[in-house]
Design brief:
globular; 30% helix; alpha/beta; EC 4.1.99.22; S-adenosyl-L-methionine; twelve-stranded mixed β-sheet; molybdenum cofactor biosynthesis
Amino acid sequence: MTLFDNHNRPINYLRLAVTDRCNLRCFYCMPEEGIHYLPKKELLSFEEIYRLVSLLASMGITKVRLTGGEPFVRTDLMKLIRSIVEIPGIKDLHLTTNGVLTSTFIPELKKIGIASVNLSLDTLDRQRFKTITRRDEFEPVLKTLDQLLKYDIPVKINAVVMDGKNIDDIVPLIELTRNSKVDVRFIEEMPFNGEGNHYPVLNWTYKKILSYIQEHYPSLHKIPDPDFSTSYNYTVPGYQGNIGVIAAFSRTFCGTCNRIRVTAQGVLKTCLYDEGVLDIKQLLRTDQDDSAVKEKLYEAFRQRTKDGFEAEQKRNSNLPVHESMSTIGG
C-alpha cells in the first residue's frame, strides 16, 4: 500500500531520532554549553520504537533512517538495528552518524545489510574540525570514513556550509569524490542550533554554494536527481563520486517531500519546520491499541502543511525557529 498526505504526496520515509544526546557540540547544531538532555524515561524505549516502526510499516513506510543526536551514544543501538531490519515492509534501513563511535560497528552493519550511511563531516582540516565541533575527534571520524569505504557501504558526507568557518573546505571535500565512490552534499545552514539564526541574512544559499563550486569546477555536470531527492546533484567528469547541494533553508524541495520525523521524545513532525504535530509517546504509553494509534497518525498526515514556510507560520509560539537539531533529529 502507498500512504499519501493531503497534498497527494506519498509518505514512505521515516527519520527516527533514537536519542537527543551527542558527543560533539557542532556550531550549527547546538550552543557550546550543550542543551538540556532528556532523562532516559522521556525517550522512546526500543520496544516502543519497534512497535511504532511496525505500525508505520503496515501503513506504507518502507524506508527508515536512524538519527540523533548521535545514534551510537545510545547503548545497544545494534540490538535495535537488528530488530528493525526484520520488520515486514521495511526495505531499507539507513543511518546518520558523526562517526566518532561508529567504526567498530561497520563490519556488523555491512553484514546486517545497512542500506547507506550519512556521515556528518564539515571539514578535512583537524583544527577547523575542532573549532566547528568544539571537540578534538577528527581521527575517529576519518577512521569511520575509511571503514565505510573499505566495506563498500554507500556513504554520503553531509557538510553544512558556514560563512567564515569552512568555505575553504568545499574544494577539498569535493576532491574526495575524485577517487572514491562517495557522495558529498553541501547543506545550507539552518537555524536549528538552540540559538536561532547565526546571520542576519543567509549569504551561503544553495545558489551561492553551487556558483562557488562551478567557479572551481567549470566542467561540473548535472546528473538526474533521484525521486524525492533533497539535493541538486552533480558530478565532475572523470570523478567516481557525486556532489549534491541541499537547499535546506530555502526549502525548494517541499513539493516532493516523502518524509516524516519522529523526535527522540516521541513527537511526530510532518515537516522539519513545525513544532511537532502528535505526541506518539503519550499514545503508546496510555494503552491505545494499534488501530487507535494508526488513526491518530492518519489524521496527522491528512493535515500536513504544504511546505516549510507554512509550517513555520503555523507554529504556536511567537519565537523564531531555534530548536537544536540534536533535539529534533538530524
